[in-house]
Amino acid sequence: MSKVDQVMEEIMSKAKQVIKWINDWANLIGLIIAVIALIYTILPFYNDSGKVSNLDSSVKVTNFQEVNLCNGYLVNDPLSEVLTTTSLSDKEKDYLESKINCYRDQIQKNHNDAGAYTNIGEAERRLGNLAAASKAHQKALELKPDLPEAKIGLALIEQDMGNKMAANQAIQGVLAVHPNKAIAHFYQGTILYAQNQLKDATVAWQKAKELDPNLSKPVKTWKLPNIKHVLGWQKNEPSV
């Protein structure tokens, strides 16, 4: 083999090495681009997995550690706004929004959690979002048709909407099935009071207190002489 041939062979060998190096880098760059594209493709779905429907739209869920926000039924913790037109403070609104997010976190973990849905319904009602509240309670009843808290929630929504007859019928329907449910008698009293049926409201509150003497505790700050008298906050009776 002549020197020229050797030189040409070396050049061809070097050229092949360069081409291979270029191809390797091109493949690596292509792989990196593909990985980046895949990440950007998956990322929106990953973000969506942290969302759960609130029946009207999807809202991002925070993984709450404060489980106390989610405990129990919200309807069992009555607020004075049930009987007043006073707007909620920003702090109260933020608190309710936090509870809603906490309930959504529960639903994310268990899509059949009827209690979480009805709690969303009551929180939305207190925020004035009656359509969303009604849908949440209806969803709860789809999952658990005999859930009294959801039926109470729907009765309160009817009252908030000014549907007096529907509100009365709804709360009476709950009491027909659960005659010893103190909170149902309590809310019957609030509904009747809002309709200016003070005597009937007093009877309902008295029945609620008879069934659950501690029920008066959540409403000790209410500025309603009638209810304070019925539930035991007279001058000679210390508040609890």
UniProtKB/TrEMBL annotation:
Ranges for the TPR repeats: 114-147, 182-215
Alphabetical UniProt keywords: Membrane, TPR repeat, Transmembrane, Transmembrane helix
Alphabetical list of InterPro entries matching this protein: OGT, TPR-like_helical_dom_sf, TPR_rpt
GO MF assignments: protein O-acetylglucosaminyltransferase activity
SMART domains: TPR (SM00028)
Pfam families: TPR_16
Transmembrane regions: 21-43
GO BP annotations, alphabetical order: protein O-linked glycosylation
Protein name from the UniProt record: Cytochrome c biogenesis factor
Organism: Allocoleopsis franciscana PCC 7113
